[in-house]
Amino acid sequence: MSLTCRWSGADVLVIDAPGRFDEVSAPLLCGPVLRFVHAGQLGFVVDFSAVEHLDRSAVPELERLRHTVRARGGTLAVAGDARVRSALRTQGVEHAGLVYDTVAEAAEACRGGIVT
């Protein structure tokens, strides 16, 4: 997994996460997000629209990251398709307001505090 970051507006950091998301690559995503959280960034969108494989073993790590971001007063949303929703649902973490079809929708939800 090779991550790239970009901004959606001035307040939401979008992390593009193409390739495989599994227990080996999960720390590659979570580590940088945690550093941004500790630096004061509060809005995040993980863009899984180009993910090739979302392994169930990595989903708990994503959920822990979401809880950590929320505990610091921030929001983390996911942009992805039906495959992403299905992978999250099978692990019991497809919350209403967590997964959005597009990055724009996810970023807007972060700004509005809609993400659960």
From TrEMBL:
Occurrences of domain STAS (ranges): 11-80
Pfam families in UniProt: STAS
SUPFAM superfamilies: SpoIIaa-like
PROSITE patterns, A to Z: STAS
Superkingdom, natural source: Bacteria
Protein known as: STAS domain-containing protein
The organism of origin for this protein: Streptomyces boncukensis
